[in-house]
Amino acid sequence: MTTPIIEMRGIQKHFGAVHALRNVNFSLMPGxxxxxxxxxxxxxxxxxxxxxxxxxxxxxxxLFKGASTQFRSPQESRDVGIExxxxxxxxxxxxxxxxxxxxxxxPRKYGLFVDREKMYAEASTVLKRLKVxxxxxxxxxxxxxxxxxxxxxxxxxxxxxxxxxxxxxxxANLSVMATERLLETMAELKKQGVAQVIISHxxxxxxxxxxxxMVLKRGENVGERYVKHTNERxxxxxxxxxxxxTALSADEALKRAA
Length: 258
Ligand SMILES: Nc1ncnc2c1ncn2[C@@H]1O[C@H](COP(=O)(O)OP(=O)(O)O)[C@@H](O)[C@H]1O
Ligand SMILES: [Mg+2]
Description:
Blueprint: E1 6-15, E2 18-28, E3 33-37, H1 44-52, E4 59-64, E5 67-69, H2 74-79, E6 82-85, H3 97-101, E7 108-109, E8 113-114, H4 116-130, H5 146-158, E9 164-168, H6 176-191, E10 195-199, H7 203-209, E11 212-217, E12 220-226, H8 232-241, H9 250-257
Parallel strand pairs: 3-10, 3-11, 6-9, 9-10
Antiparallel strand pairs: 1-2, 1-4, 4-5, 7-8, 11-12
Helix pairs in contact: 4-5
Bound molecules: adenosine-5'-diphosphate (ADP) and magnesium ion.
């Protein structure tokens, strides 16, 4: 059996009186696309932020390539190749595309001046690799549509050459075309062996690109299935009326069905 690129076991997280994650288990295989679904406030974003070190867990283990880790910040998980693209993109609107992609690490000349030529050339390369359609690396981000802003956020993430990418509700505000482009980008990254998590309310997206789907409800695991061996109706049923008793792993669910 292959070792998951990242695994979480028994994750607990509280925010004051809110018990956001209750003993949650999670695994992601290299090159796999996992759909993470559940109603609002189910704990999806929190679980991913615990994984990247944006939030600190109260209890449980996070294993990267089988080794126990404790990322104290997203910077630490970025260093091992984990990138999360947040719902709000976290970009600087008044800066241009190139500046955003290399935010916080603009290439320097003589350790002093920003090497603009190098920065924009590399920004163009990353955008081409993604096959995204941003007209110019000199455009201000605030002048771009939601879909293109998202492309910039993704380009920034990809420029770190990650092994794991997490997309939090990426298609929520996208046009049909932009959604298709994003799903193509995900398929392209998968070909390159990148493991991905997509949080989405749109089950069609998950059924189009996903390998496996994991359901959270009120901070608990309530089920997991291989996309090939389930359908939108069954997943919806788990989202609405799943319980800890229905929380079979995808492999267990397969065996039971056999
Ligand atoms: N930074 C925070 N401070 C306080 N409560 C939070 C914070 N982040 C999330 N929560 C709470 O944790 C629960 C899970 O939230 P979240 O992970 O955002 O759910 P989802 O992404 O599935 O919609 C919710 O009750 C939410 O209000
Ligand atoms: Mg969320």
